[in-house]
Amino acid sequence: MSSLIAKGSPLRRWGPWIAVCVVAVGVLSIATFGTRSAPSAQDRVSTISRSVKCPVCSGESVAESNAPASQEIRRQIAEQVQQGQTDEEIRSFYAAKYGQAILLTPSASGVNALVWILPIVAFAIGIAALVIVFRRWSSMPAERATEEDRELVDAALRDNADVDDDPHGEGASR
Amino acid sequence: MNLALGRAGVTLGLAAAVLGVITVGYGLLRKRPDLVRLSRWYAALVFFGGFIAAFAMERALITRDFTVKYVADNGSTKTPALYNFATMWGALQGSIILWALILGGYLVAVVLKFRKRLADPLVGWALFTMLIVCAFFFGLMVGPANPFKSFSPPVGFDGPGPNPLLQNNPLMAFHPPMLYLGYVGFTVPFAFAIAALITGRVGEGWLLATRRWTLIAWGFLTVGIILGSWWSYEVLGWGGYWAWDPVENASFLPWLTGTAYLHSVLVQERRGMLRVWNISLLCATFALTILGTWITRSGVLESVHAFTTSSIGIALIGFFALIVFATVGLIGWRGDRLRSPGRIDSPFSREGAFLANNVLFAAFAFVILLGTLFPLAVEALNNDRVSVGVPYFNRMTMPIGLTLLFLMAIAPVLPWRKASTELLRHRLIWPAWIGIGSMIFAVIVGARGFIPVLAFGLGGFAAGSAGRQIALATRRQGWRGFVGRANGGMVVHLGVIIIAMAFAASTSYVRQAEFTLTPGQSAKFAGHTLVYEGQNVKQESAKIVDQVLIRIDGTGPWAPSLNKFANGNQTIGTPSVRSTFTDDVALSVIDIKDGDNGSVTIRVTVQPLIIWLWIGGGVMAFGTLLAVFPGRRRNPLDAVSAPLSVEPPKKSTGVTP
């Protein structure tokens, strides 16, 4: 079969990689769209309570904390889930009751939007800087070894055996 | 007695550090090698001072000498010996003693290692810098964080003992020292970087001299972070191991910049490039250890406004500012020498991959730093409150993590200079199939969801690449194929991949629920059956332990408990975890109802692959150890890369010689 494809043809060279891509897309679509049991009420409660901050402790979510206030909120969330409220409705209920700081995910409005935007800006700057330096590097003339350089290297290689590459007793130099 | 001894130690350390700075500094400026060489005595005295302080504190703790205020505040006659010993690093002032002791130890180690080069200005300035850092930390113990304040205990006085959470698991005895060995260890390469800038010898000499020191510090930091995460999993009882908590972030930040440095430094060694960037990364790593200490120790986390009352906060942030200004100033001053003539020919090369790695790690560190400090900034500027928590960090770091995994798959097989697509196609096909295999395996065992399955695929791909490098190296060099920087580095990669897979699986497929059970009652959750058998109350010296006995799938009984400590009214839960290679069932007691026919409320957390986090940590530590040992010696005159125009020969590329 493979002999039908000419040696050195793009298909022959890229064939295995095309197969890899096809299988990857297939497996990933099974993983993404395949049957999955819907999250149970219990799972939704624990997901939501992981994104709500415990009102009386420092830096713990309601899910982690054992404080009575957190236990109460967990119970409340369970009721709200039972009543059929959506995750967003439940979260905004607590934001309205305790203030925005009760949510562990900062909102994307006002000053708080900065916490989402700045990393993307910084990353873009990093990539742009890389592109710029590579541009500059590629426009630089390649260094050419001169006759003098070659002689220097040859001389060094001749002396190679006598060279102590470890003058300070620091072990291997690599 | 202990007070006097401790104060003597602190004073000795401070005096030796300050005099050392003056003497060595004067000797370096006046070109007096005899004075510069005195650094060895000052180093010994600093270490001795730190040792006496630590000895006095341990002696005070062990003899329960409550005339030392630190012992009165944190010690207790009821604390078991191991936790009593570990109390030295259980609170702020004592932890500074540990810091100073370790710093003194590193100082002496540097003096011993470079004993033949003490008069060399590079080593001299490095010791000068280290002595300044020592003077700062001993200064803290004289001023804002004095561990040897006196206290006059009333008759029959007994202290409250350390925070109950700190006497619940033996890991407490190991996690902080490991972490500090890492934090403090970065002082050595930092000091050499500063010395290189001052002397103008910004070439590769100082890099080679400190390479192993950096690696060792990084290894300790890695182990410290993983032990800390293990500790929180075993002790805190909320079922998790990493909460993107400011304390955790503070340790993770220098790890990220340190990791970036360990990679980009290779570009400088090979090609003489990226000098400014490497020095900046190293200084950032050291500065972040100080900033992290400030974040966690100044009280700034409770509120920005609480911080002005803490003088240690001001001292630490001042020292941080000094480091930043000194570094930036020195780099600006040496700007001309730091410029390097080289260039990177192609982004598809080993050095190009290291640059990409650096951008990703820098972005990672930026996200963590921003998320940690953002609430403080908003409060300071706007007087408003905002929380940045786990959902933010998970969402922002996930794409970075996946890209890093992808890079870990590609980068190890890239040659220096320039790669052809031909070469990549050939070298990466087997790793790619391993990635596909791991995705298929994940889907067969029931994994669903785009992100986690993609993560398993990329993890397999990266593991395939690392495995390929190790296989090639061992085929060529035998057992030596595991040793040395490049080969050990691949073992570290495998450890990182194991941790990344465990992290992806456990965060994606965590199931958590609460059950209220009466004795004999059972519950089914996430494929496990739990039977509540009854309670068992134990009286221990420092606490009353109320155990709840539960059988998981017929094994056990497992005994999560509530502990009531004799001193203080705090009740602390101790979780109980059943670990297997596939999943962990973690139980913690939420509530025990008194007199109510013994019914209890327990929280059950089921997470897959947790044990692999710790195994991965062990593999990383082992890999670091392999990387520390010298690999095959490379003659410095041997060519390091093939000429640009010639296709690199297949045999010698791939694995760095």
TrEMBL record, chain A:
Chain residue ranges for the region called Disordered: 145-174
Protein's UniProt keywords contain Transmembrane: yes
One Pfam family it belongs to: CcmH
Segments forming domain CcmH/CycL/Ccl2/NrfF N-terminal: 34-153
Presence of keyword Transmembrane helix: yes
InterPro entries (UniProt xref): C-type_cytochrome_biogenesis (IPR051263), CcmH/CycL/Ccl2/NrfF_N (IPR005616), CcmH/CycL/NrfF/Ccl2_sf (IPR038297)
Gene Ontology terms for molecular function: metal ion binding
Keywords attached to this entry: Heme, Iron, Membrane, Metal-binding, Signal, Transmembrane, Transmembrane helix
Transmembrane segments: 14-34, 113-134
Gene Ontology CC, one term: plasma membrane
Similarity comment: family membership: Belongs to the CcmH/CycL/Ccl2/NrfF family.
Name this protein carries in UniProt: Unannotated protein
From TrEMBL, chain B:
One Gene Ontology CC term in the entry: plasma membrane
Name this protein carries in UniProt: Unannotated protein
Keywords: Cell inner membrane, Cell membrane, Cytochrome c-type biogenesis, Membrane, Transmembrane, Transmembrane helix
Topological category with respect to the lipid bilayer: Multi-pass membrane protein
Domain named Cytochrome c assembly protein: residues: 89-298
Localisation per UniProt entry: Cell inner membrane
Higher taxonomy: unclassified sequences, metagenomes, ecological metagenomes
Organism of provenance: freshwater metagenome
Spans through the membrane: 6-29, 41-62, 82-110, 122-142, 180-200, 212-232, 252-269, 276-295, 307-333, 354-378, 398-416, 428-447, 491-510, 609-629
Molecular function terms, GO-annotated: heme binding; heme transmembrane transporter activity
Job description of the protein: Required for the biogenesis of c-type cytochromes. Possible subunit of a heme lyase.
Subcellular location, principal: membrane
Gene Ontology BP annotations: cytochrome complex assembly
Family affiliation: Belongs to the CcmF/CycK/Ccl1/NrfE/CcsA family.
A matching Pfam family: CcmF_C
Leader sequence segment: none
Cytochrome c-type biogenesis protein CcmF C-terminal domain sequence ranges: 319-628
